[in-house]
Design goal:
423 residues, 2 domains, Aminopeptidase, elongated, 4-stranded antiparallel beta sheet, binds zinc ion
Length: 423
């Protein structure tokens, strides 16, 4: 039986579910403080599980708290096509970051079921536990699901809301952290993974396009820049004699900003110094020490490496001119992660079937999809963020865009669940 595309989403039902989830852990009018492994988080997961079951999906919560719902395909033994995102938030964050992707996947699978469209592969909806850094480990649930994080790592990380280790927090939330290895999906168990997410940036809104097909998730280098100067009296020490670590850090920050702003736009280089600390940190003391955290991102690994090289050169220059040595420390690299051509094609076909305009763009943010890419072909679909805002209660996405994204997702899932289509 051929099914007429697009499968239109049930907007009223989606709105009801959206409002119901947004009420759990609500902060103010539009904020959400729903950190993973807390009672509020468990409440929303239970609610999502109920919706999945009402939709006829077979649900499962794994040992660390990932929720999945499965709709069987007509051919037994084939790998599943999976879609979803996360239900936890920053502390506080907005209502769309994460839930948009879970609700869209749920509605997409439900509409596929209601339409009677046949599909060979099973289709699964997932709500990963603990995607946000606020829970203590970024992309926690998908990291466990892909076997990257186990009990050892969980014992070392702190769950900020409780101050316990992640290991203890998983247990306190009803999980069984010792059995984390049981959460790892076998290679070959998934055919493809798709995550619908809000863009968290201004591009789609500026281009007036409802659908962004992600071609890759940019990579990042994170670390610290540490400067060692000489502490001195703020009045007694004339300027030429100073070896001020704060000024060296400031010169480094502004210098690197200039370098990054000059990089070609296509490389999507961003640089953020999110934490600045000077020592000893007193109004009348020339700082003898300064530490910056940096988050450097770019589309390609060579671009990242080039920028890291520029940082080292800048440090060497500042050391010569100011006599303040600086070094990079605690460097952590996450390579860029490409979306698969087959999943992108499915999303583009879906957008065209629904009559939506679309553009290709990279994801600047890290998502669970990056982890899932280790397991199977991955793709992401962005919908617009008003003013590009996210990780704040001001975060907003127009509901019609969520509905449009859901329809594209449904079409893409249906296409990928056909055994003749390559992911
Ligand atoms: Zn998110």
């Amino acid at each position: 039986m051929a099914v007429q595309l697009p499968l239109r989403a049930n907007r009223a039902r989606m709105k009801r579910e959206f409002d119901a989830q947004a009420a759990i852990g609500r902060v103010g009018e539009t904020g959400l403080a729903r950190v993973a492994l807390t009672p509020a988080y468990n409440r929303v997961r239970d609610l999502a599980r109920r919706w999945m079951e009402q939709a006829g999906l077979e649900t499962r919560v794994d040992a660390v708290g990932n929720l999945t719902g499965r709709k069987e395909g007509r051919v037994r033994g084939l790998p599943a096509v999976m879609a979803g995102s996360h239900l936890d938030s920053q502390n506080p964050g907005g209502r769309f970051d994460g839930p948009a992707g879970v609700l869209a996947a749920l509605e997409a699978v439900r509409r596929i079921g209601e339409s009677g469209a046949p599909h060979d592969h099973p289709i699964e909806v997932v709500a990963f536990v603990g995607e946000e850094s606020a829970c203590g480990m970024t992309v926690f649930g998908s990291s466990v699901m892909t076997g990257v994080v186990g009990p050892k790592e969980m014992k070392r990380a702190i769950h900020p809301p409780t101050g316990k280790s992640m290991y203890e927090a998983v247990a306190a939330a009803g999980g069984n952290p010792a059995r984390a290895a049981s959460c790892a999906l076998a290679r070959g168990s998934l055919k493809a993974f798709i995550e619908l997410h809000i863009e968290q940036g201004p591009v789609l809104e500026a281009e007036r396009v409802p659908i962004g097909v992600v071609d890759r998730v940019v990579g990042y280098v994170r670390g610290k820049a540490i400067f060692r100067g000489v502490t001195a009296h703020s009045g007694g020490q004339p300027m030429p004699y100073r070896r001020d670590a704060a000024m060296a850090a400031a010169e480094f920050m502004v210098g690197m900003e200039r370098v990054v702003r000059r990089a070609p736009a296509g490389q999507r280089v961003t640089l953020t110094f999110g934490e600045v600390a000077v020592r000893p940190g007193w109004i009348s003391i020339v700082p003898g020490g300064a530490t910056l955290s940096f988050d450097l991102r770019a589309r390609t690994l060579p671009a990242l490496k080039r920028m890291l090289g520029r940082m080292r050169r800048e440090l060497a220059r500042i050391r010569r001119t100011r006599k303040v040595p600086g070094r990079l420390a605690d460097i952590h690299v996450l390579p860029p992660c490409p979306a698969s051509p087959g999943v992108r094609r499915a999303l583009i076909r879906g957008a065209e079937a629904a009559g939506n305009r679309w553009i290709t763009l990279p994801s600047g943010g890290v998502h669970d999809a990056c982890r899932m890419a280790a397991l199977c072909p991955m793709g992401m679909l962005f919908i617009p963020s008003v003013k590009g805002l996210s990780h704040t209660p001001e975060e907003l996405t127009r509901f019609r865009h969520l509905v449009q994204g859901t329809e594209v997702l449904a079409a893409a899932l249906l296409r990928l669940a056909d055994r003749r289509v390559r992911a």
